[in-house]
Specification:
Elements (H helix, E strand, L loop, with lengths): L2 H7 L5 E6 L3 H7 L6 E5 L9 H14 L6 E5 L8 H12 L5 E4 L5 H18 L7 E6 L2 H5 L1 H5 L5 E6 L1 H7 L21 H13 L3 E4 L8 H14 L3 E4 L5 H7 L4 H18 L9 E3 L2 E3 L1 H16 L14
Parallel strand pairs: 1-2, 1-8, 2-3, 3-4, 4-5, 5-6, 6-7, 7-8
Antiparallel strand pairs: 9-10
The structure holds glyoxylic acid and magnesium ion.
Glyoxylic acid binds next to helix 8.
């Protein structure tokens, strides 16, 4: 795996803040907020008449810097519109060195991702940027995209995440509700989103990508946000969109392991390493307190440790080998 690709796989994306690309004030404010990722939107949060000006606003904001270690993303318009190619050319030529990913909405087919990959390569070569550094986030927002999600996830080595777009998706399948993320009235069994979330997660993990949950539109209802976020976090999702600064802390907490789980995971790794060693008796399965641990426990612990370290957690409990 190239250096450019392996570096971007580690990006935290617990909170992905949506900011209209046409609003310089909101863009400026976003720089100081504790979101892991900011995406500057040229699509649905940007009125058609404002799109040409927004491209310039975005280029200037990216070039001006001040983003700290945030992941910097621009969402372009989808490929059924007349805007996409100009969005990509103008933004990447103007700010390709100060940009981490392009998000492509409403992806329906793998060749749409391939188009973006080739276009990025051409711009990178023309401008003298490192070829392959800019990643791709693909939004799944319609039945067709979900059916094709495996091919979409595998369509380019630039792919970093699959993002669920619940609002457009609900419209695409005629789901009988207007409240994004909440269960449709009348569906009184299970979770109406379970299949979609799992389908996306499988395609993402099978291709070593992150899976990101979409927006919750009731921005004042932070408890509601947490309730919906808890579900995708429990399945294994890496993060969720946030539409308002008030949702950021909730997302960062929900998609980070708890301190107890983080400490426990670090201890599993240390204990398993010791028990499998000569000094620990070369055991493949061992007891850690009341719990039996083996190679599968180590793999689960590694995931939690990775997320905990990325979230900046610091260990508060350290396992030590038993004395003879
Ligand atoms: C986001 O783009 C959505 O449609 O939910
Ligand atoms: Mg959408």
């Amino acid at each position: 795996m190239s250096e450019a690709i392996s570096a971007r796989r580690l990006r935290p994306r617990r909170s992905c803040l949506a900011v209209p690309g046409s609003n310089p004030k909101m863009i400026d404010k976003a720089k100081g907020l504790p979101a892991d990722q900011v995406f500057l939107d040229l699509e649905d949060a940007c009125a058609p008449l404002a799109k040409p000006g927004a491209r310039k606003t975005i280029v200037a904001a990216l070039n001006a810097g001040g983003w700290g270690d945030k992941t910097r993303v621009v969402r372009v318009n989808d490929l059924s519109t007349e805007w996409t190619y100009r969005d990509v050319v103008e933004v990447v030529e103007g700010a390709g060195a100060d940009l981490d990913c392009i998000m492509l909405p409403k992806v329906q087919r793998a060749d749409q991702v391939a188009w973006l990959d080739m276009t990025l390569t051409q711009i990178e070569k023309t401008m003298g940027y490192l070829v392959g550094r800019i990643g791709i986030e693909a939004q799944i927002e319609a039945a067709k995209g979900l059916i094709e999600v495996d091919a979409i996830a595998a369509a380019s080595p630039r792919m970093e995440t699959i993002v669920f777009g619940p609002a457009d998706f609900m419209a695409s399948i005629n789901m009988k509700t207007l409240v994004v993320g909440e269960q449709p009235p009348g569906y009184d069994t299970g979770d109406a989103y379970h299949y979609i979330l799992m389908r996306i997660l499988m395609a993402a993990r099978a291709n070593d990508l992150q899976a990101i949950d979409g927006p919750y539109l009731q921005i004042k209802d932070v408890d509601g946000f947490r309730r919906i976020a808890d579900r995708s976090a429990a399945l294994g999702y890496d993060g969720k969109w946030v539409l308002h600064p008030g949702q950021i802390d909730a997302a960062n907490q929900t998609y980070s392991p708890s301190q107890d789980d983080y400490d426990h995971a670090e201890n599993i790794i240390d204990a398993y390493q010791w028990y499998t060693s000569e000094a620990g008796g070369r055991r493949g399965a061992a007891m850690l307190g009341d719990e039996m641990i083996d190679e599968a426990s180590r793999k689960m612990a590694r995931v939690v440790v990775g997320k905990g370290r990325a979230a900046g957690l610091v260990r508060t409990d350290k396992w030590t080998p038993p004395e003879d």
